[in-house]
């Protein structure tokens, strides 16, 4: 059990980065997803096609390949410096954004047309109808699915170990490589994720129960 | 105040309104009756452009609403609508539902709107429900709140789209009672309804529609006792014996 003294602090420091990347990524993802989700259900053909192409590309390529591409190709082509963490956040953002687009689209379409009509019939502007009448219930109904996407994104961060982001999984790999203790290291890692994600799953249940 | 001229509406190829001509004068209560699918609701919804008419004109104090330059919001601020399914905002309390539009359109401050909303709640007999959410209210109560919400904008005309059709029979009376009061106060109202008794008592004029046309119109006494058209006779015979 002596090895835990070294491994656990490493995992916790990795967890910090895991959370930073997942939270930042999903935040940006919600912004992207809200814009694209709105475009998907809107009347403008051009923005709709742009949103569809984006979602198609993200869904039709593996996240790990996106990470490799963002880390090794994009900086070269654009001649810019990107840290692995920045790329990690971007990949999680773009990835979750694509799935959130579909969530938002469904939530917006799920708001009863009668609500919008009531708003319009009272002389509200289109923006007021959107902001005051459509978005609040849509966001509410989307919340469980958004939190579910957050859980997925937390797990997806493990794939960022491929571009040497020092998140939880990468820290475990480092330790295993140096200590040659693969079996205990990865067992602890799996249990570590199990505990963290169980907490998130419990939170999600609570949200779902409240929404009902 | 409202002149509807050669109004028609097509959904793709299907023509649901054909050459509708109606004038509404201030203070008039007009009930539109007719079999389902006759275009009554579509006609009503064309008036405040919830549906876009395919051709014809609707003029409101001389201004053509169908004109693209016309800002339909101005009209909607002055013309309230009450829906069959109430369409209250579910995340807002009864009071907030009523306050919302006057505040957002800049007509009243929040405090003025709150005061007004309370008065209106009293008028519809639901003062004690001010802080309740729509899903805790009965259909009849929701519809009364919806009427109060429309009244909060001080409308010059109220459009009712089958306001009692979604209600349990024992709740219909309360809603009709409020509508009667409004009629007595001189509110201009256009009402699509299946409540023949109400139409007979309250309407100044009955419009009978079938197959997208106005088949016949006249005073309730005429329409209900001696309809000229066979279509009207058949419809009334079926409704009134049912």
Summarize the structure.
Chain A contains eight helices and no strands. Chain A is mostly helical. Chain B has nine helices and ten strands.
Radius of gyration of chain A: 20 Å
User: What oligomerization state is this entry in?
Assistant: heterodimer
Residues in helix, % of chain B = 25-40%
User: Which H/E pattern describes the elements of chain A?
Assistant: HHHHHHHH
Tally of separate helices of chain A: 8
Output the strand order for the largest sheet of chain B: 6-7-8-3-9-10
Radius of gyration of chain B: 18 Å
What percentage of amino acids of chain A are in beta strands? under 5%
Structural account:
- Chain A is mainly α and 212 residues long.
- Chain A is built from eight helices and no strands.
- The radius of gyration of chain A is 20 Å and the shape is flat.
- Chain B is an alpha/beta fold and 242 residues long.
- In chain B, the strands form two sheets. Chain B has a six-stranded mixed β-sheet, sandwiched between helices.
- The longest helix of chain B is centred in the last third of the chain and has 16 residues, at 169-184.
- Chain B starts with a strand and ends with a helix.
- The mean pLDDT of chain B is 94.
- The chains are: A mainly alpha (212), B alpha/beta (242).
Question: Which descriptors apply to this entry?
Answer:
heterodimer; A: 212 residues; mainly alpha; B: 242 residues; alpha/beta; six-stranded mixed sheet; four-stranded antiparallel sheet; 39% helix
């Amino acid at each position: 059990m002596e090895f835990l003294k070294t491994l656990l602090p490493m995992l916790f420091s990795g967890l910090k980065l895991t959370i930073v990347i997942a939270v930042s990524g999903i935040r940006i993802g919600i912004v992207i997803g809200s814009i694209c989700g709105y475009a998907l259900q809107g009347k403008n053909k051009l923005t709709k096609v742009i949103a569809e192409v984006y979602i198609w590309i993200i869904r039709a390529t593996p996240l790990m390949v996106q990470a490799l591409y963002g880390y090794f190709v994009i900086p070269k082509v654009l001649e810019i410096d990107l840290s692995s963490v920045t790329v990690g956040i971007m990949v999680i953002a773009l990835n979750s954004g694509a799935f959130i687009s579909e969530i938002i689209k469904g939530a917006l379409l799920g708001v009863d047309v009668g609500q919008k009509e009531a708003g319009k019939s009272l002389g509200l502007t289109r923006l007021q109808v959107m902001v005051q009448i459509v978005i609040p219930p849509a966001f509410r109904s989307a919340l469980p699915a958004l939190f579910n996407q957050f859980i997925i994104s937390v797990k997806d961060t493990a794939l960022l170990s491929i571009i040497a982001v020092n998140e939880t999984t990468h820290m475990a790999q480092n330790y295993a490589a140096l200590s040659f203790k693969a079996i205990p290291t990865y067992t602890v890692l799996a249990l570590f994720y199990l505990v963290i994600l169980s907490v998130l799953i419990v939170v999600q249940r609570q949200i779902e129960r409240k929404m009902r | 105040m409202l002149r509807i001229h050669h109004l028609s509406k097509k959904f793709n190829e299907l023509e649901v309104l054909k050459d509708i001509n109606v004038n509404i004068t201030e203070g008039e209560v007009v009930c539109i009756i007719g079999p389902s699918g006759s275009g009554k609701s579509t006609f009503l919804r064309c008036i405040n452009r919830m549906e876009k008419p395919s051709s014809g004109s609707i003029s409101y104090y001389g201004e053509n609403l169908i004109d693209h330059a016309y800002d339909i919001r101005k009209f909607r601020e002055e013309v309230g609508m009450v829906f069959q399914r109430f369409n209250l905002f579910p995340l807002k309390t009864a009071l907030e539902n009523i306050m919302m539009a006057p505040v957002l359109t800049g007509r009243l401050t929040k405090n003025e709107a709150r005061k007004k909303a309370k008065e209106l709640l009293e008028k519809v007999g639901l003062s004690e429900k001010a802080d309740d959410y729509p899903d805790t209210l009965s259909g009849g109560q929701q519809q009364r709140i919806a009427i109060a919400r429309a009244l909060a904008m001080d409308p010059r005309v109220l459009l009712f789209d089958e306001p009692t059709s979604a209600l349990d029979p024992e709740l219909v009376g309360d809603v009709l009672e409020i509508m009667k009061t409004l009629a007595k106060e001189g509110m201009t109202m256009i009402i699509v309804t299946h409540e023949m008794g109400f139409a007979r008592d309250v309407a100044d004029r009955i419009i009978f529609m079938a197959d997208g046309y106005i088949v016949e119109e006249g005073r309730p006494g005429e329409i209900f006792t001696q309809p000229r058209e066979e279509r009207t006779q058949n419809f009334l015979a079926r409704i009134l014996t049912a």
